[in-house]
Amino acid sequence: MRFSTEKVGSRRGFFRATLRYGLLGLLAAAASLAARKPRSSGQRCINRGICGDCGVFDQCGLPRALSVKQEKGRRT
């Protein structure tokens, strides 16, 4: 079976474009996941509301932790 060079070239072009745009889509998806702001829904306080000595204070998005972070920012 013979293939013309035009069909082979277009097939290669198709696979190149598919790979290129597929990788571009994966890169965009990874960037959007990395840039996403952590949401506070589903979080629970593990330190009974005492934010100062909490081990996850830096990543916490609960309202009490956010207000403590804001107060610490005002003092500095």
Structure, described:
With 76 residues, the chain is mainly α. It folds into 2 domains: 1-36; 38-76, no CATH class. Helix content is 58%, strand content 0%. The chain has helices at residues 5-35, 63-75. The protein is rod-shaped, with a radius of gyration of 25 Å. The chain starts with a helix and ends with a helix.
Number of domains: 2
Residue fraction in strands:
under 5%
Number of helices: 2
Q: What's the main sheet like? A: none
Global shape:
rod-shaped
In percent, how helical is the residue content? Answer: 55-70%
- Order of helix and strand elements from N to C terminus: HH
Cα distance spanning the termini = 77 Å
- Mean pLDDT, all residues: 81
Number of strands: 0
Uncertain parts:
none
Strand pairing plus helix content: what structural class? mainly alpha
Report Rg.
25 Å
List keywords for this structure.
mainly alpha, 2 domains, 76 residues, 58% helix, 2 helices, single chain
Write the layout of secondary structure elements.
Layout lengths: L4 H31 L27 H13 L1
Quick overview:
The chain has 76 residues and is an all-alpha fold.
